[in-house]
Design goal:
8-stranded parallel sheet, 59 strands, hydrolase activity, TIM Barrel, Glyco_hydro_2_N, B-gal_small/dom_5, Beta-galactosidase, Immunoglobulin-like, 955 residues, 5 domains, 11% helix, binds beta-D-galactopyranose, glycosidase
């Protein structure tokens, strides 16, 4: 006979959202009612199971003196108790909903506090938790006040009757795993803890309860209509608009509308008998009209990012300054939209979005992705028992965030399959707030949603969708399209985003997209720099898939963000060489160009010789003007010339300083004159070596040894690059994944067979065959060296042999210079790295860098740091010119060492700086989750010839 007892921890595995909490309501940042932050150092005890300890710790008088301490907000696994786990979509426990493992790390938290001496004695009080992962039970002064789930959602409890002036004991038991964990399978670290603020709010008699600010904008009449519905009657005043009305009453006045580009907020007050709450009112109207998402009558183009909350030391416990940094970085990189993947963010983040201007897709805390492993059987979103929990989550999001003008779309969640529960959420949201649209990517037929949304669709499919040739349900065919995720920014990349942007701008139906994702979730770690999945010994993990952001974990912009900024710039500048004009187009949706100043400059061989103001009219959105450039200055040097036009902020703004670069373009005028090198010298065979002009070669192998006084090591053809995350692709990708295929073919272990060393009258010719063991494919490679006595010219000819089925990683030469070399100067693309499909932000000019700064510190080491379109580079006393332009890379380790490294700490500088001079590079693509490099960016083996001119720099 078996039986089961009901136990004190049954709530952990209960599908219900919890008990004891107050109904959800609007969040406001401040009010004249008192509040007390309970953040700080709390006593903490970790237990291995949910019921290892009884609840006696919650009783008053319990002595927790021997306990550890943790910071609240915080995650205990980032404070030395247990460790984080990273999985993408796999549940790190057996899928047996709603049951969770017996091994269920449980953190008991204790905090003792006094009320301030002037804390009002009347009214009530509310205890608010802004976020606890994943399930908490709460006691105040020994009384059990309830338990809740819904990690990234607020929960409030009425506690006035329990408070004492001094010695209040707040006890919170937090379980890492609960039924709620099944609804929170987002691709991120599992990080238990009280990770958002805990606050005690005084609730005066007659104080504000819930309220809903309805502020719409009539773009035809230029009028705003305001109505504040409030559970407690009161008055609404907006002094700047002379508004003074009762709650529930509408008023219409001329206003300036709120948009992400022009985030006009009007300060107001909601005053009830007992409380005054400041309002920040933004008037705007969101509609679905003509199959388009329109705000204030204008269709939007989202230039967005997916943002998880992340801090490399504090995890998802973010402070205000970090949130502000995110918003400022977004604004400074031309980003206009955020999807709060995949849960409502800390509420202060939305205040910042209102203030600085970002369109927000506010996403509910819901993902059940792990059920895909079992063909979605038992998926909670299609099981009525879970529907109350889903509706609770929807309500907690909508009620909390409904007064933010920045929020234009509600998203039901992410990757939760399909089911009745989602439909119920959508219906509830529509009933509560008809003023916004509804999004959910998993609803492929758009039964419940207002926008057709996909992730990682390739360019060709987006093009078909743009043309309306994608089929789909009747409803879907009439809806706008967005890519809620694209451009997977894992490691080096994403590539191909300029090609996406071109599609977005070609079809009205396509209203933009959101790059996956904003920031790498690397955890600061002494051992590795930044840790990723597996670094904590997890039995199941998804490695560095958690590091796929446009920012490195410490918020340094990666080259991907610099590229994105350029791709989405809000001004298009196109030069016309023939008539000396530039066409400037305002690509904002709402703002004119009055905030920008335009400047032209003229470069000869990459050096600016003249510059001046370019008078651009204050174009309205969508308008263009042709603006005449001055006559080009006389150029006595006869060098390569180009124009550069830059648009910068004309004055300091809330998010960027005056002179901040917003948009730019370059267009060439006269091409680069090529250097002619007479073949005046011939090779001379000496004792064990051949000399040719300034160079010495090994007589037997024909290998270059030195140029003048500079030793050169191991110069030879190189095709290998340390595969990028995008080269490797994701395991589930059906397409060709070149990283593994390259390795299988043996491109990382090419052998160089010497066929001949030929001394001609004016040239040294070395013939080789470069091929991997076990294969018949090869690259016949001929090095032809000539000299005019001081300069050395190398022409490399490469002829593929055999049946090549794969593109090459790279094609060029590699050479080694002394390890003491510490920097490089070059004329070409810069300042940052670029690859064939990530060149948008590469600006042609004169640049310099240390060798160390040439490296891009991807959290998992991989190919990086190439500079594009290089005309010449000076490094280690050597000047190298290329015909045609080339890609230049220099590092203190070989590509093989880079390839072997798992963390940057594995890379040790050797006694050589390895330089790659590449004729070609394979594109990057975004196959770590999306499509690979487009055909035009692939480096297909084909006969090739390229030349480098070497000379020693004297003086
Ligand atoms: C998507 C998912 C994201 C993330 C991304 C890959 O499928 O929505 O949460 O996992 O793929 O990095």
């Amino acid at each position: 006979m078996s039986f089961r007892t009901t136990s004190a921890i049954d709530y952990v595995e209960d599908v219900s959202p919890g008990s004891g909490a107050l109904p959800p309501r609007a969040r406001y940042a401040s009010s004249d009612a008192r509040s007390l932050s309970l953040n700080g150092s709390w006593r903490f005890r970790l237990s291995p199971t949910a019921d290892a300890e009884d609840d006696s710790f919650a009783a008053q008088g319990f002595d927790a003196g021997g306990w550890a301490e943790v910071s609240v907000p915080g995650h205990w696994v980032l404070q030395g108790h247990g460790s984080p786990i990273y999985t993408n979509h796999l549940y790190p426990f057996p899928v047996d909903p709603p049951r969770v493992p017996t091994k269920n790390p449980t953190g008991d938290h204790l905090h003792t506090f006094d009320l301030p001496s002037d804390w009002p004695s009347d009214g009530g009080a509310v205890l608010r938790f802004d976020g606890v992962e994943s399930c908490a039970r709460v006691w105040l002064n020994g009384t059990d006040i309830g338990e809740f789930k819904g990690s990234r959602l607020p929960h409030e409890f009425a506690v006035g009757h329990l408070l004492k002036p001094g010695g209040n004991v707040l006890a919170v038991r937090v379980h890492q795993w609960s039924a709620g964990s099944y609804l929170e399978d987002q691709d991120q670290w599992w990080l238990p803890g009280i990770f958002r603020d805990v606050t005690l709010l005084h609730r005066p008699a007659g104080g504000v309860l819930d309220f809903f600010v309805h502020a719409s904008y009539d773009h035809v009449e230029g009028l705003g209509t305001l109505r504040v519905d409030s559970d407690v009657d009161g008055r609404v005043t907006v002094p700047g608009l002379d508004i003074d009305v009762a709650t529930g009453e509408s008023v219409t006045v001329p206003v300036r509308p709120w948009t992400a580009e022009t985030p006009r907020l009007y300060d107001g007050v909601l005053a009830t008998e007992g409380e005054r709450v400041p309002l920040r009112v933004g008037f705007r109207t969101v509609v679905l009209e003509d199959g388009l998402i329109k705000v204030n009558g204008t269709p939007l183009l989202f230039k967005g990012v997916n943002r998880h909350e992340w801090h490399p030391e504090r995890g998802r416990a973010l402070d205000l300054e970090t949130m502000r940094e995110d918003v400022l970085l977004m604004k400074r990189h031309n980003i206009n939209a955020v999807r709060t993947s995949h849960y409502p963010p800390h509420p202060a983040f939305l205040d910042l979005c209102d203030e600085y201007g970002l369109w927000v897709v506010d996403e509910c805390d819901l993902e059940t992705h792990g059920f895909t492993e079992q063909a979605w059987r038992d998926n909670p979103v299609d099981d009525d028992r879970w529907t109350p929990a889903l509706l609770d989550r929807a309500a907690r999001m909508v009620e909390r965030d409904k007064n933010h003008p920045s929020v234009v779309i509600w998203s039901l969640g992410n990757e939760a399959g399909t089911g009745r529960g989602l439909t119920a959420m959508a219906e509830w949201i529509r009933g509560r707030d008809g003023s916004r649209l509804i999004h959910y990517e998993g609803d492929i037929d758009c039964r419940d949603t207002d926008v057709y949304s996909r992730m990682y669709a390739d360019h060709a499919e987006v093009d078909r969708i743009g043309r309306g040739l994608d089929g789909g349900t009747h409803r879907r065919r009439g809806l706008p399209f967005i890519l809620c995720e694209y451009g997977h920014a894992m490691g080096n990349g994403p590539g191909g985003i300029a090609d996406y942007q071109h599609l977005f701008e070609s079809y009205d139906r396509i209203q933009g997209g959101f790059i996956w994702e904003w920031i790498d979730h690397g955890i600061k770690d002494e051992r590795f720099g930044f840790a990723y999945g597996g670094d904590f010994g997890e039995e199941l993990h998804d490695g560095n898939f958690v590091c796929d952001g446009l920012l490195f974990p410490d918020r340094t912009p990666s080259p991907g963000l610099v590229e994105y900024k350029k791709v989405i710039e809000p001004v298009r500048i196109v030069g016309d060489r023939a008539d000396g004009t530039v066409r400037v187009t305002n690509a904002y949706d709402f703002a004119d160009l009055s905030a920008l100043t335009f400047e032209w400059s003229y470069q000869v061989d990459g050096e600016t010789v003249e510059s001046g103001v370019l008078p651009v009219p204050e174009l309205a959105p969508g308008e263009s003007a042709d603006v005449k450039l001055p006559d080009p200055p006389a150029d006595p040097r006869g060098g390569e010339t180009q124009w550069t036009v830059r648009a910068t902020l004309a004055a300091d703004t809330a998010w960027g300083p005056r002179d901040h670069l917003v948009a730019w373009a370059q267009f060439p005028l006269s091409p680069r004159p090529l250097t002619v090198v007479a073949r005046s010298d011939g090779p001379v065979l000496g004792k064990g070596q051949i000399t040719l002009g300034p160079a010495a070669f090994d007589a037997r192998t024909g290998a270059l040894r030195s140029i003048g006084g500079i030793d050169v090591r191991g110069l030879r053809l190189d095709v290998w690059r340390a595969p990028t995350d995008n080269d490797n692709g994701a395991a589930w990708q059906p397409d060709l994944r070149y990283g593994p295929l390259w390795r299988e073919l043996g491109l990382h272990r090419m052998q160089h067979r010497l066929n001949s060393v030929e001394l001609g009258d004016d040239a040294l010719t070395v013939r080789t065959r470069v091929a991997p063991a076990a294969r018949e494919v090869a690259l016949r490679t001929v090095y032809r060296w000539t000299s005019d006595g001081t300069r050395l010219r190398l022409t490399v000819s490469v002829a593929p042999e055999g049946d090549w089925r794969l593109p090459l990683p790279r094609l060029g030469i590699r050479l080694g210079l002394a390890g003491s070399v510490d920097g490089a100067r070059w004329f070409g693309g810069g300042p940052g790295e670029a690859y064939p499909d990530t060149t948008s932000a590469s600006m042609v000019g004169r640049w310099e860098s240390t060798i160390d700064a040439l490296q891009t510190p991807y959290v998992r080491p991989q190919e990086n740091g190439a500079r594009a379109d290089v005309r010449w580079v000076e490094i280690g006393g050597l000047r190298v010119e290329g015909e045609p332009e080339f890609w230049f890379t220099a590092r203190r380790w070989t590509s093989e060492q880079l390839d072997a490294a798992e963390h940057p700490t594995d890379l040790k500088a050797g006694d050589t700086v390895w330089v790659n001079l590449d004729h070609g590079q394979q594109g990057i693509g975004s196959q770590s989750c999306g499509p690979g490099a487009l055909p035009q960016y692939q480096l297909r083996p084909a006969p090739a010839e390229f030349t480098f001119l070497f000379s020693e720099i004297h003086g």
